[in-house]
């Protein structure tokens, strides 16, 4: 395993698996925030203390019980170039904060990238587990396994009344953030999402874009997560989020059915026009590419296409981000150069996919 693998493989291997309700739910994520009791929080500790935290966590994960999770690679973020950091952010393997603002940051990554343990982010430790489709309970089980093993050798900052202590008060308690990434094109097209999002926010949940806080919902992809970590158990948080996500799945499917019944020819036209843009454009910006990829993904889910897999679109959503484009180019690109390379990459990748499926059919 090497850094190059994490930087050149757009789709993590766990993303290739089909999960429950994966036509709408792209992924489920659990993140646990933990701090060591004998060190100041990352906002206050020294460089020496930060380095000690990294060493202690890395040593912990070298122990035999962690071998059940496969090979785990340690990356020192400060040793990476800006472009390499950006690619890891685009793959959701590290946070923007760890990439840019953290003190002595590091990350421990599993081979198939379903486990990411960030060190010295806003908290000493942030355990992240990712699963395809709607699998919040399974992701929580995996995260708790890792957390329990780590706690056998590390003394966490914990208060009997408040729970796990964290740098940000909004994470105190369980220290858990549960989230799902959802593709909701029909709710956007029918404008129902405009009334749904405020209703979700009133339930103690938050709706964000594809890269979390402060990001846009590119390609009609939304991240739904809990806001409350104090006063509720992990199981209750998961149950509440699952309930809302199930309702969103039902509403998205109903909206898709309604579009097919009432506006099928217009929907087909939109989907095939977007496919035409992707397969013929010579210049395409990030937002337009994301919109067209979303349309084509919807067309695949509705059975309009049989010669493209859903995975290729998951791959292209990441490959066409600025960091990945420049990684493939081998250096920095101006915005217009990125738009040209993005169009070329999409055309070539879709053509390769068509040829591959054609061979398999013959």
TrEMBL record:
Gene Ontology BP term (one): phosphocreatine biosynthetic process
EC number: 2.7.14.1
Binding locations of ATP: 27-31, 92, 126, 177-181, 208-213
Domain Phosphagen kinase C-terminal: 24-255
One annotated Gene Ontology cellular component of this protein: extracellular space
Means of activity regulation: Appears to be allosterically activated by the binding of pArg-containing polypeptides to the pArg-binding pocket localized in the C-terminal domain of McsB.
PROSITE patterns membership: PHOSPHAGEN_KINASE, PHOSPHAGEN_KINASE_C
Function statement: Catalyzes the specific phosphorylation of arginine residues in a large number of proteins. Is part of the bacterial stress response system. Protein arginine phosphorylation has a physiologically important role and is involved in the regulation of many critical cellular processes, such as protein homeostasis, motility, competence, and stringent and stress responses, by regulating gene expression and protein activity.
PANTHER family named in the record: ARGININE KINASE 1-RELATED, ARGININE OR CREATINE KINASE
Protein name per its UniProtKB record: Protein-arginine kinase
Designated gene of the protein: mcsB
């Amino acid at each position: 395993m090497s850094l190059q693998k994490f930087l050149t493989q757009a789709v993590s291997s766990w993303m290739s698996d089909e999960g429950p309700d994966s036509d709408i739910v792209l992924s489920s994520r659990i993140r646990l925030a933990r701090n060591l009791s004998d060190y100041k929080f990352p906002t206050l500790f020294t460089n020496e203390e930060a380095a000690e935290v990294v060493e202690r966590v890395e040593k912990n994960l070298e122990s035999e019980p962690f071998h059940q999770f496969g090979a785990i690679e340690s990356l020192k973020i400060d040793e990476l170039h800006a472009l390499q950091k950006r690619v890891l952010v685009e793959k959701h393997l590290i946070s923007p904060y760890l990439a840019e603002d953290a003190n002595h940051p590091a990350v421990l990554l599993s081979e198939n990238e379903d486990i990411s343990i960030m060190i010295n982010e806003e908290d000493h430790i942030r355990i992240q587990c990712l699963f395809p489709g709607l699998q919040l309970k399974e992701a929580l089980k995996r995260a708790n396994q890792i957390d329990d093993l780590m706690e056998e050798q590390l003394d966490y900052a914990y208060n009997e009344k408040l729970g796990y202590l964290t740098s940000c008060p909004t994470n105190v308690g369980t220290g858990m953030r549960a989230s799902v990434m959802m593709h909701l094109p029909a709710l956007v097209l029918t404008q129902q999402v405009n009334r749904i999002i405020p209703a979700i926010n009133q339930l103690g949940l938050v709706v964000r874009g594809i890269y979390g806080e402060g990001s846009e919902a590119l390609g009609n992809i939304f991240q739904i997560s809990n806001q409350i970590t104090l006063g509720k158990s992990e199981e209750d948080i998961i149950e509440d989020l699952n309930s809302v996500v199930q309702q969103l799945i039902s509403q998205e499917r109903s909206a898709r059915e309604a579009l097919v019944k009432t506006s099928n020819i217009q929907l087909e036209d939109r989907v095939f026009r977007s496919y035409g843009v992707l397969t013929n454009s010579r210049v395409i910006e990030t937002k337009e590419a994301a919109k067209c990829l979303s349309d084509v993904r919807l067309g695949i889910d509705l059975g309009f296409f049989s010669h493209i897999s859903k995975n290729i679109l998951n791959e292209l959503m990441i490959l066409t981000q600025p960091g990945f484009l420049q990684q493939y180019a081998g250096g920095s690109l101006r915005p217009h150069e990125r738009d040209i390379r993005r169009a070329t990459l999409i055309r070539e990748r879709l053509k390769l996919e068509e040829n591959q499926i054609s061979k398999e059919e013959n």
